[in-house]
Amino acid sequence: MKIAVLGTGLIGSTIAKDLASEPSFEVTAVDLHPEGLARLEAEANLRTHQADLQVPEELHEAVASSDLVACAVPGFMGFEVLKGVIEAGKDVVDISFFPEDAFALDELARARGVTAVVDCGLAPGLCNVLAGHVAGRLDRVDSYACYVGGLPKVRLWPYEYRVVFSAVDVIEEYTRPARLVEYGREVVRPALSEVESLDFPGLGTLEAFNTDGLRSLLRTLNAPFMKEKTLRYPGHAELMRVFRESGFFGEEPVDIEGRSVRPLDVTSKLLFDRWRLPEGEEDLTVMRVVMEGSKDGTATRHTFELLDRFDPATQTTSMARTTGYTCAIVVRQLAGKMFTQKGICPPEFVGGDPACFGHLLAELERRGVQLTEAVSEIGDS
Question: Is domain 2-121+319-368 classified as CATH 3.30.1250.10?
Answer without folding.
Answer: no
